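Changelog-adjacent note: as of this version, every example in the card shows the full chain rather than a window. The one below runs 362 residues end to end.
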Amino acid sequence: MIKQLNQIGEVNMVTTQEKTWKLEEYGETKYDTVVLMTPTINRVPEALKKNALLNFFNEGKNIIIIADKTLPEAYTEFLMDSGIEFENGANFIVDHFNHEEEDGLHQLITSTAMNRDVIRKDVGKIMYKGVAMTNANKSPLVVPILTGSKTSYVLAEDEQEAPVAIGEEAMLVAGVQGRNGARITVIGSMDMVSDSFYDKQATGNNAFGQELFLWATGQRGILRHRQVKHHVVGETTEKYMYTINENITYSVIVEEYDQTKGGWIPYVANDLQLEFIMLDPYVRTSLNHIDAGRYESTFQVPDTYGVFKFKVDYRRAGYSYLIFNNKQTVRPYRMDQYDRFIPAAYPYYVSMFSAFIGFFIF
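Full-length structure tokens:
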């Protein structure tokens, strides 16, 4: 695992006995990612307590926590605030159908239920021995990365009670995608990322770890936008104000950062949406991918004037949030833009002129 992290960036290893070690100094964070591999520590240093970790995360930095059967209370409180429930003292996850043959307790399980937006390679089955987490509050920020199979379950500390989690609700590896782009990754097993599991040829733990740490350190799945443009159909220049019922074209380029492909690359998807809103959406339409990460949509301005916003609010598990908007004024027709003769009013025109004619004749 350490070798994989070294391939991503410089690794600075520190023990918990170093009392002068800090995550921040002079108001600036010293690291982009912190990896906590201290599941059995009795006394958590001040620099790693709940508030310090929350501040580090709020600064847009990443946190990776590798657990075992227990975790320090400061870590479990931090995870609970983030939406992940880790039950200290719970039994290991068990699967009587998907397990290694040499394990009589069926705690050395295998799983292929993983999030393909995070783990993009076909890594095969993952060998796992450890505890599981749950998304008890159904937080939309929590990203299940690796879950148990449908036949797995986790017993509570008192085995006479109902299982803590059953099937795919038991998360073996979980992430939290913050609104600020920061990420928390929790691995429920020290063995899973150990050399003994990595070296087994029949499992994909090594390849899984490479894919996981790319995501966990923010080297993949980060989205950005640029070149927002909009104009009337048939024109090329952006207008300060649009008129009601005009047809306009909106376009934007969306890119994803992927370290393995050399940086920013075009992002291709079919689920981006554009909203044209004034308090409520008056128009909601799909953004269609044209080429090289450029998305475009054409729609008619509603028959309502005021201050609108072009808004894109894209939230997909495994990617950073993409939220941006642009204000746009919509005005009514000018006096010289209305039709001079309205077909529906022809009967009134006839009656008016007939009245004139009758007055002069009679």
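Structural remarks: Helices lie at 2-8, 50-58, 73-82, 195-198, 205-216, 346-361.
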